[in-house]
């Protein structure tokens, strides 16, 4: 941040984006990372971890709806959902909208993120932390999977980039843990960055996931505050039909859910698995 209250992101070397800070709401070092929340006149409240934008009030719904509703509606009847990371509470908010889900387990390494976001980003969780189905565990996601025998229908890894504490959520051991802790017919999804600028991460994730899942791919969405083009989400299961679900089935499930989204709809879901050729060539 310079003297003119301009904050510059540090994710990429040589290129990037900047934000004007109207007011700094919180800035401290937690036990794991540098955590900052500030107000921007265009994007509302912005959360930053270790110099990288994680989420903003203005466009968070795109990311969180796609991370949640794509796997949840592709699965016929999820009952037990695991969220890894996601301390801002917005994935939890979306998952908790499904009344058929019996238990939601959330594993977040940094308790400070949960508490600070409750205070400064309350619209993200929208009261979901009070859901009686929630089991909140403060732990490293990789460690939790290695030590838990519990099975899940859906695992959503809402991790940071593979920097700092997020590194553990891109390893072979982590992906193996996800496979071991999924029920038959389960689905794993994770954010995998902006593929045009982070293609090495996408390729590495793809190769590692292929060791444990027979059907591995990506789906996409465009989130304005994630600089560099489309963001991709890892998709892994052992049943290819889950990724190739028919449009009429999606429409029926979405209608029956009674849920109304700001970004997600069945057509977006169906077409999000169409990937640019440059990414297909790399894979």
UniProtKB/TrEMBL annotation:
Spermidine binds at residues 64, 88, 158-161. The keyword Transferase applies. It catalyses: S-adenosyl 3-(methylsulfanyl)propylamine + putrescine = S-methyl-5'-thioadenosine + spermidine + H(+). One of its GO terms (cellular component) is cytosol. It is an enzyme of class 2 (transferase). S-methyl-5'-thioadenosine binds at residues 33, 108, 140-141, 165. One of its GO terms (molecular function) is spermidine synthase activity. InterPro entries: PABS, PABS_CS, SAM-dependent_MTases_sf, Spermi_synthase, Spermidine_synt_N, Spermidine_synt_N_sf. Pathway: Amine and polyamine biosynthesis; spermidine biosynthesis; spermidine from putrescine: step 1/1. Residues 9-238 form the PABS domain. Keywords: Polyamine biosynthesis, Spermidine biosynthesis, Transferase. PROSITE patterns: PABS_1 (PS01330), PABS_2 (PS51006). It comes from the Bacteria. Its EC number is 2.5.1.16. The active site is at residue 158. One of its GO terms (biological process) is spermidine biosynthetic process. Homodimer or homotetramer. Catalyzes the irreversible transfer of a propylamine group from the amino donor S-adenosylmethioninamine (decarboxy-AdoMet) to putrescine (1,4-diaminobutane) to yield spermidine. Belongs to the spermidine/spermine synthase family. This is Polyamine aminopropyltransferase. It comes from Candidatus Erwinia haradaeae.
């Amino acid at each position: 941040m310079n003297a003119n209250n301009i904050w510059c992101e540090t994710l990429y070397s040589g290129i990037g984006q900047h934000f004007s800070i109207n007011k700094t709401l919180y800035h401290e070092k937690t036990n794991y990372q540098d955590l900052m929340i500030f107000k921007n006149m265009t994007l509302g409240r912005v959360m930053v971890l270790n110099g990288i934008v994680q989420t903003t009030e203005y466009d968070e719904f795109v990311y969180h709806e796609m991370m949640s509703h794509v796997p949840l509606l592709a699965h016929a009847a999820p009952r037990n959902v695991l969220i890894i990371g996601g301390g801002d509470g917005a994935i939890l908010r979306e998952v908790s909208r499904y009344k058929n889900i019996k238990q939601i387990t959330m594993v977040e390494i940094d308790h400070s993120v949960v508490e600070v976001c409750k205070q400064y980003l309350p619209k993200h969780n929208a009261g979901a932390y009070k859901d009686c189905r929630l089991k909140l565990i403060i732990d490293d996601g990789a460690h939790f999977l290695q030590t838990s025998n519990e099975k899940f229908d859906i695992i959503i890894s809402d991790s940071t980039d593979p920097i700092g504490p997020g590194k553990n959520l891109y390893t072979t051991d982590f992906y193996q843990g996800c496979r071991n802790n999924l029920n038959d017919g389960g689905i794993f999804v994770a954010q995998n960055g902006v593929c045009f600028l982070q293609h090495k991460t996408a390729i590495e994730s793809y190769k590692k996931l292929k060791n444990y899942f027979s059907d591995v791919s990506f789906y996409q969405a465009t989130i304005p505050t994630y600089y560099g083009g489309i963001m991709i989400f890892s998709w892994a299961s052992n049943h290819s039909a889950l990724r190739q679900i028919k449009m009429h089935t999606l429409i029926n499930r979405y209608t029956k859910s009674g849920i109304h989204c700001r970004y997600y709809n069945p057509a977006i879901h169906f077409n999000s698995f169409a990937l640019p050729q440059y990414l297909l060539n790399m894979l």
